[in-house]
Q: What sequence folds into this?
């Protein structure tokens, strides 16, 4: 492979900064193992200057949350005509907002748990209890609450009793002004990585997630040992195929690029339920994308090395 | 809890849920087995648990998990965020030019000593100098009763190691220093908090706690107290109370561990009499150069009665062999050649200016319903927020608004503190402090808005450490 210089963008100012720094670090090590020259850059006031003067062959966006996943950083890279790995700014805007992603997939015939999305102002103006009652009536219990734009399960809470809802809402609104409330579906939780290759987007083996606590929250995600993983997931051939198809469809319908990770639940009757898609998936020591990559027989470095080449070819 | 049940050649997934409802409510146990004949799961593939050592860890590691709260402090290190969370001393006033010359001299003149193992006791000349420093607080001590430690944090760790068996009780002020709570947890001691008011630890509360322990047949090993410019509360133990606290401890046969890193940082250069000066035989005194000179050198000390000191030396040896010789020599040379008292006065002035900025900003900006302590030294203000606001749950909102603080829950071992938070004024400039308080006030207003919408709610438990690491500004 030609001597390539790559800048990995990691860190940022979102709540997921810490996770992003770890993703960036692991990715950088993997790419250096492929013989590339890699620098890890934060997104701060010096970034544009660095991009202009150092002109890396490509940039990889390993930012999680905020400016790194809502299209902002991508817009800057596009303006500066820097080749980069990851979804375009337009795709980001579509996929980053969970309810938008769910609606698009549901419209295309996929299953996703019932949901409502509401800002704090609605609860304030119409009376919290009335709105909460309406939510429980519509969606039933148990529910899961998530900030409508966010990741790493920050602010995510499972609510089993209606009495728990107000506290769960307050905790969720700490992360953003709008909450997604969704029916909590029990079943086999899987994460499916999609990588674009020669012949188009390809689903890697699904990874099954079994957190000891029962909820794949922040602590379960980032404390080694608190979650069991199975790669490939222990699914019937039929279900494995179905989750792969869902992930590829999500990737295409939402206009994602290069790499994405779809989270889904396979319920007892075999229905595959779409939860969300992540366009800048975690690459830490406890993340599922590297596990999927390994289960497919590849390595993080080789996969991203390919994506770097594709990004460079795209630009030229 | 989820698991697998293998039966008759098939694998089923079961789920066991236990909910305990307190105060004689019913216990609710559900076992679900949502598998049907056409279940989508079959055993195959590689199982990964990312920690092969999972079943080898000692019980004391239970709290060592990834924490959302702790992850937020990573954002606090960005310059865009005004961090009022950390406790890093402001070292900008140190005479770096002089110091660098001195360090070079030490290596040139005494390199073979400076770079070699020393005694676990610490170098003699430094121990003598420490005696002179403690004399300012009324302590009369012999250099041999001092053990130099790798920071007073290590000193506290050693003292806990010497005295606490798992299940022993340590009495601490409520709130207390997070590093101390960490040490007590590491040795599996139980912490009982006793309330403070604006004059520090409340003697009646201490008496009640000790009486309570006695009644329950529990062994209390020591009282851990930070009498001056308390971290995190900012208050100082009133001089009139000091003798009474000591007397209570003597009555109940309880040792006193006096942790005094801030004692020389009173803004009027006021110095309070050390507990050790009032009761030499029942007090173990922890001192530090971290706030009066340089935190990164990791030089602190323990002053203990001779029998305790003997054991401390042995314990220290098995922990670190000896404290760093070079760093002790740096401290010693600094003390003997530099006007260290003058330097402390400069620090006092710097911190006073920052305290003033913070208190006036709080006065101007905080919404009604808030109250806070008024420190006359040290680094911290302890703020109480209006009823219903949870400072731990509020932290992500604060980070979004580019301000950080340490939620009060990190400073209690028993889940208290969600109505309080600690603000540090030691590191940022006065302008930044004012800006930080302005942002915090806006965050509080938003949070109070949320409380008005949803009512007072107790937020969920979040596991893992809740305070920034020591190098968080």
A:
């Amino acid at each position: 492979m030609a001597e390539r210089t790559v800048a990995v963008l990691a860190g940022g100012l979102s709540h997921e900064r810490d996770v992003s720094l770890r993703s960036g670090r692991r990715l950088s090590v993997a790419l250096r193992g492929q013989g590339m020259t890699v620098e890890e850059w934060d997104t701060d006031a010096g970034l544009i200057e660095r991009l202009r003067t150092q002109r890396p062959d490509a940039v990889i966006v390993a930012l999680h949350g905020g400016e790194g996943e809502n299209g902002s950083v991508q817009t800057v890279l596009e303006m500066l005509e820097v080749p980069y790995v990851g979804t375009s700014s337009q795709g980001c805007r579509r996929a980053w907002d969970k309810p938008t992603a769910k609606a698009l997939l549901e419209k295309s015939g996929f299953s996703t748990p019932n949901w409502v999305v509401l800002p704090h102002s609605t609860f304030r103006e119409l009376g919290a209890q009335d709105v909460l009652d309406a939510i429980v009536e519509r969606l039933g219990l148990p529910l899961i609450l998530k900030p409508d734009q966010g990741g790493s399960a920050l602010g995510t809470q499972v609510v089993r009793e209606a009495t728990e809802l107000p506290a769960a809402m307050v905790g969720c609104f700490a992360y953003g002004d709008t909450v997604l409330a969704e029916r909590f579906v029990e079943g086999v939780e899987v994460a499916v990585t999609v990588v674009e290759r020669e012949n188009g987007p390809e689903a890697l083996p699904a990874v099954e997630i079994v957190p000891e606590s029962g909820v794949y929250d922040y602590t379960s995600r980032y404390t080694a040992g608190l979650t069991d993983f199975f790669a490939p997931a222990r699914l019937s051939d039929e279900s494995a195929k179905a989750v792969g198809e869902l992930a590829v469809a999500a990737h295409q319908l939402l206009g994602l690029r290069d790499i994405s990770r779809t989270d889904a639940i396979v319920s007892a009757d075999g229905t595959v339920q779409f939860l969300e898609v992540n366009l800048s998936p975690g690459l830490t020591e406890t993340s599922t994308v590297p596990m999927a990559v390994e289960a497919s027989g590849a390595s993080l470095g080789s996969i991203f090395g390919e994506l770097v080449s594709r990004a460079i070819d795209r630009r030229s | 809890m989820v698991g697998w049940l293998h039966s008759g050649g098939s694998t089923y997934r079961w789920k066991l849920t236990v909910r305990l409802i307190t105060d004689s409510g019913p216990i609710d146990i559900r076992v679900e087995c949502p598998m049907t004949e056409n279940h989508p799961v079959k055993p195959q593939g590689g199982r990964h648990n990312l920690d092969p050592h999972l079943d080898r860890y000692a019980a004391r590691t239970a709290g060592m998990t990834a924490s959302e709260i702790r992850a937020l402090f990573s954002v606090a290190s960005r310059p865009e965020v005004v961090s009022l969370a950390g406790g890093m001393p402001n070292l900008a006033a140190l005479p770096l030019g002089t110091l660098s010359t001195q360090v070079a001299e030490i290596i040139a003149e005494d390199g073979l000593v400076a770079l070699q193992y020393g005694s676990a006791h610490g170098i003699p000349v430094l121990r003598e100098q420490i005696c002179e420093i403690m004399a300012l607080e009324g302590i009369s001590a012999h250099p041999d009763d001092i053990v130099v430690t790798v920071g007073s944090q290590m000193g506290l760790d050693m003292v806990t190691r010497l005295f606490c068996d798992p299940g022993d009780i340590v009495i601490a002020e409520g709130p207390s220093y997070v590093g101390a709570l960490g040490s007590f947890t590491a040795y599996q001691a139980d912490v009982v908090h006793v309330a403070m008011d604006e004059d520090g630890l409340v003697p009646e509360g201490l008496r009640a706690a000790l009486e309570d322990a006695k009644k329950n047949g529990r062994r209390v090993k020591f009282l851990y107290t930070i009498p001056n410019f308390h971290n995190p509360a900012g208050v100082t133990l009133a001089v009139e109370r000091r003798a009474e606290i000591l007397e209570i401890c003597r009555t109940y046969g309880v040792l006193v561990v006096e942790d005094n890193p801030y004692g020389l940082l009173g803004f009027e250069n006021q110095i309070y009499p050390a507990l050790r000066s009032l009761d030499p035989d029942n007090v173990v005194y922890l001192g530090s150069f971290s706030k009066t000179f340089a935190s990164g050198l990791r030089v602190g000390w323990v002053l203990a009665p001779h029998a305790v000191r003997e054991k401390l030396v042995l314990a220290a040896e098995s922990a670190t062999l000896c404290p760093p010789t070079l760093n002790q020599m740096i401290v010693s040379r600094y003390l003997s050649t530099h006007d260290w008292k003058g330097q402390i006065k400069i620090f006092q002035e710097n911190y006073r200016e920052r305290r003033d900025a913070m208190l006036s900003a709080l006065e101007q900006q905080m919404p009604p319903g808030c109250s806070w302590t008024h420190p006359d030294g040290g680094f911290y203000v302890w703020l109480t927020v209006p009823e219903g606001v949870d400072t731990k749950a509020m932290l992500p909102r604060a980070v979004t608004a580019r301000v950080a603080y340490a939620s009060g829950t990190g400073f209690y071992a028993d889940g208290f503190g969600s109505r309080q938070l600690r603000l540090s004024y030691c590191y940022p400039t006065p302008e930044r402090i004012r800006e930080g308080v302005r942002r915090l006030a806006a965050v509080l207003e938003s949070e109070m808005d949320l409380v008005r919408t949803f009512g007072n709610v107790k937020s969920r438990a979040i596991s893992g450490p809740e305070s920034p690491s020591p190098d968080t500004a």
User: Anything to note?
Assistant: Residues 340-365 of chain B form the longest helix (26 residues). Chain B touches chain A through 61 residues (CB under 8 Å). The longest strand of chain B covers residues 10-20. Chain B has three domains: 2-56, 68-86+343-459, 97-338.
